[in-house]
Amino acid sequence: MILILKTGATESQIAHVIERVEALGMRAHLSRGTYRTIVGIIGDENKVREEPLRAIPGVEAVVPVLPPYKLASLDAHPEPSVVDVSGVKIGGGNLAMIAGPCSVEDEPRMYRIAESVRDAGANIFRGGAYKPRTSPYAFQGLGEDGLKLLRDVGAAYAMPVVTEVTDVRCVEVVAEYADMIQVGARNMQNFVLLTEIGKTNRPVLLKRGMSATVTDLLMSAEYVLSQGNSNVVLCERGIKSFDTATRNLFDVAAVPLVQTLSHLPIIVDPSHATGRPDLIPACALAGLAAGADGVHIEVHDCPEVAKSDGPQALLPSQYRELCDRMRQMAELLGKQISPLPKALA
Amino acid sequence: MILILKTGATESQIAHVIERVEALGMRAHLSRGTYRTIVGIIGDENKVREEPLRAIPGVEAVVPVLPPYKLASLDAHPEPSVVDVSGVKIGGGNLAMIAGPCSVEDEPRMYRIAESVRDAGANIFRGGAYKPRTSPYAFQGLGEDGLKLLRDVGAAYAMPVVTEVTDVRCVEVVAEYADMIQVGARNMQNFVLLTEIGKTNRPVLLKRGMSATVTDLLMSAEYVLSQGNSNVVLCERGIKSFDTATRNLFDVAAVPLVQTLSHLPIIVDPSHATGRPDLIPACALAGLAAGADGVHIEVHDCPEVAKSDGPQALLPSQYRELCDRMRQMAELLGKQISPLPKALA
Amino acid sequence: MILILKTGATESQIAHVIERVEALGMRAHLSRGTYRTIVGIIGDENKVREEPLRAIPGVEAVVPVLPPYKLASLDAHPEPSVVDVSGVKIGGGNLAMIAGPCSVEDEPRMYRIAESVRDAGANIFRGGAYKPRTSPYAFQGLGEDGLKLLRDVGAAYAMPVVTEVTDVRCVEVVAEYADMIQVGARNMQNFVLLTEIGKTNRPVLLKRGMSATVTDLLMSAEYVLSQGNSNVVLCERGIKSFDTATRNLFDVAAVPLVQTLSHLPIIVDPSHATGRPDLIPACALAGLAAGADGVHIEVHDCPEVAKSDGPQALLPSQYRELCDRMRQMAELLGKQISPLPKALA
Amino acid sequence: MILILKTGATESQIAHVIERVEALGMRAHLSRGTYRTIVGIIGDENKVREEPLRAIPGVEAVVPVLPPYKLASLDAHPEPSVVDVSGVKIGGGNLAMIAGPCSVEDEPRMYRIAESVRDAGANIFRGGAYKPRTSPYAFQGLGEDGLKLLRDVGAAYAMPVVTEVTDVRCVEVVAEYADMIQVGARNMQNFVLLTEIGKTNRPVLLKRGMSATVTDLLMSAEYVLSQGNSNVVLCERGIKSFDTATRNLFDVAAVPLVQTLSHLPIIVDPSHATGRPDLIPACALAGLAAGADGVHIEVHDCPEVAKSDGPQALLPSQYRELCDRMRQMAELLGKQISPLPKALA
Hints:
The structure is a homotetramer of 345-residue chains.
Chain A: E1 2-5, H1 11-23, E2 27-32, E3 37-42, H2 50-54, E4 59-63, E5 83-85, E6 88-90, E7 94-100, H3 107-120, E8 124-126, H4 144-156, E9 161-164, H5 171-177, E10 180-183, H6 191-198, E11 204-207, H7 214-226, E12 232-236, H8 254-261, E13 266-268, H9 270-274, H10 280-289, E14 294-298, H11 316-332, E15 336-337
Parallel strand pairs in A: 7-8, 7-14, 7-15, 8-9, 9-10, 10-11, 11-12, 12-13
Antiparallel strand pairs in A: 1-3, 1-4, 2-3, 5-6
Helix pairs in contact in A: 3-4, 3-11, 6-7, 10-11
């Protein structure tokens, strides 16, 4: 860390700064410039916190030189990680194709959609049993019944399933039924939830919060990793912006940016990023071209009766057409869509 | 609600739209303009959801004419609500002065800070026992021991106390020790937590999320209200912006805006909004001038050793000086700082 | 347009609204809902402005049903436009590859860079002679000498050239030397400049402002088009965001979004969008995959001595490698990089 | 400046960095930490630019230690500046009350509005003769006729006048008729315009751009100051945000922030910041409470026929009531509304 002192910091302030740094077990290296004095802190930066240093009188700014995450960083693991979701690999050239309805709905519909997305090329089936809804009066999901149905549908087509957990008290039951646990954007900084999920060994799909920086996202991944669960897949799904023409702003540059900082796989979710079916195909292809390790897309066979997020769902026929184009793109990039396992364990 | 149909919507699409609207128990009122056809939906808008309507073929946009919240709206309660926190009133001309350290720390320090802020003019004491920290390696709070200490300190000075709950499993214990439960910005859309808190009868301090619109904030209040707990106080504490000179962007206009939409009291938190002690007094006064029902400020007697958020804390002497100015401002505005109760019940 | 009246709008307010609408030569179509009254305005929406209607007592909101631009819209021109820049086509499957240094610098360097980017695959050469710099103390460009040099270099390699104009008094001289005139992000709403450029017949490269919505961008294009110059190429170059890890936020979804609204070609500029050479290739490919009609990239053979924007420039060798990948991507998408003209006219 | 080198920067890269720094006439001070090497640059930071340093191989980040502006900084002028607009003082405890219609309109209306705002307490009259409109089809202002009328109205009531200039070719004529020249938000980074205005001796009202940081705003002021014109008054008028409930987001904290960085006066414009008459009074008072040196408000006697921005104008009666409250606020703060001059020179 580097401390930039204020113009006119007094000698006794400088002495106090050095004293505080040394009290923390570090060495201070003073550099007196023409206008400002700079204090380099030498030692294990991870042992000191930025905040108390900024509160020392005479300190103007604290500049960290290391990222605040460790296990998520490329330093900790220089090769890209590959996460295995019940036989479907994500990362290292293996692409996840996650598809399904926003919510788990009635049984025949679930089988119908699952069959159509599997035939199109999807390798992981999604559906929400617990729905975080902005309105307390909206459909909140089928709960455990939804989890069971989701698992049965997945088993029928040998597709691993992913579903969201919103309540720390449901982590166990979700981990029992699902192959992969999703943390939604609104819970990306629900640290209690992240910690409990970190104690399971289930692969995690961690969605970026709507106002989270890439650093924030990696810090949330660090919560899961620090509990011993290293199977984290990140997901860019759009952030807040002043232009409300699309539901969120798809930050495609986050994909290569994460890859310069972390070994964790990162996929994209153009359904939530844009909220508009007519923009999803272009953004899905853009995500792959930018280097994403997979694409998450909502598919529904009758959006106008969907229990949630209907307007942003692709029809099965649209998804099939997009899969064909994504397959060509994968080939151009020298990647493969991960094959389905023979059967789920 | 109003449906705007696409240019070139066909007659059979229009017929299908009308059919769908009537199937929902509403009446459709058609208006054919020069360029577009508009469908007014007549009936109880709250019975229809926007989403499925947007997914009907031929529909370009859905324009709601009512706000999505009910209990939080001025329609439900045209007079400003007054929330009573163990004898301290908030709203309707009564100002809350919430102050204290970010985290509950050691006992002597807590008594020292509480005494100083009470003497300055604070009427509610704050301190975090469960801290939502971006880093898993940072101080996470003292937990239940912290809650007990906070309650004891409050009792000693006859100040009600407020503390944050981050884990749905801790709602009960927090409700037992604290006079008011805080929902932090990162949990504003933790709907599971909001629902559980709504089942208690404790006053709630609901902080605006960093990327939440005012409508989002009111929808989160609606979650609490819909469970039967009507003691909700909103808090503007800064939102995300492209200018990172301050920690967040203090949206002071949210105060009068909320007052045109809702009866719930709203206070401001210039500590989190700016993250800079030198800007806190100006923003606290601005908040009051804009009509806020109180001010939440972090105070610490030695910021450089604070366990969290030290750099944004005021010193007790700075807080005292600010309280004097806030008292004058209150007088100008015809409001009063709520007096402390004789003793806590 | 649709007027949504306030709850409790009086009969005399409603009558006044209708009177005002009819005074504007339109017909009003009243629709009384359960909660609100809606007034549909029938007639040529372009003849009425939204603002005065919103100021009528009793009116809560005005909802336009047509986009505010006309000549830029797909309604005016349903097929994608193709812009011809001295023989290089942009749009309709023809890709622009614009490359060159940020500023026009010394002569040998300009020839060197031009040769390298032409050999790599670029078809338009760029360089700034007038530089809009945040600091009045920074290099402001070579002015007319720079323009001449740029033209000569372009002629030597049969590449059309594009350069920015920042001063309305220089439009004429820039139009004389350059094949295409660039309007920079900071001048996107310099309406005086847009109007003057609209009076020339030079192709225009119109960059999106840092806080401009896609609608704002199309309105700025409308300024140029309304003066009779229909040769406008839009450029997505990143917008402001709370995450400052990249210089701007690359809004790749703006590409397909523009294509649902307008016939104008749109290219991407990953150099300014990211400000980081290590992210440029991924974003360039993402832009093409999303459907962009070209890519604008800054190239410099010695970034550490560049007179401006050095840190975001690719080296010629990096650009060559990227061009190879872009060529493959173009082929996959069924598009072609526009060939260079035999010679410039 | 401080250079943070990349992990694993080689010795030859370090040597090259030092060589480059010394070639720029500065000294390099090396500090080898446990993880990173830091290079402090000693000498006049203003002589080196950040950009080329960031482009040197092995450099990860460049941290400036001085602000990029000089003349606008408190270092250059530690006392608050007072700007004199034809006898009306702004800054140093003197408040500007700028009011008038958005556009200069017909003569009787202008006299009527001017009289009403002067009687209410305004001390500078505003009106736009050249209007920067998003749409090329909207009213563009009366031009030089409008300037003359504005001057005559001001003279009749002994009020200095302020009006916007949008075209560099009109700077001279605007400086002739107006007492103060306004640079609008969309032109805040029109550096050509700023430079020409800097060559006049007219006071300047410089509005913050919608996506400008406070540093950007001060850099634009620096453009004017660097040409010799030191009469710059800054204006906070709202910035872009994801919450579109208000037209812009009123950044009230920018007022005290600017005061920690610069000697220039800063006023607020709640009309443009909120775009809603019902929020203007609260935000005007908040601005004063935060320390602003004045308030800019649009007033129109019949908003529904205003040629521009009608919906955000206060009625004369509303403005009068607000002035009474602002006067009380000024008294509380120990400031005065600058008195009108006896007559204009």
